[in-house]
Amino acid sequence: MPTYDYKCLDCGYIFEEFQNMTDSPLTVCPKCKGQLKRLIGAGAGPIFKGTGFYHTDYKMKNNNTSNNSGKK
Question: 9 falls in which pLDDT band (50, 70, 90)?
Answer without folding.
Answer: very high
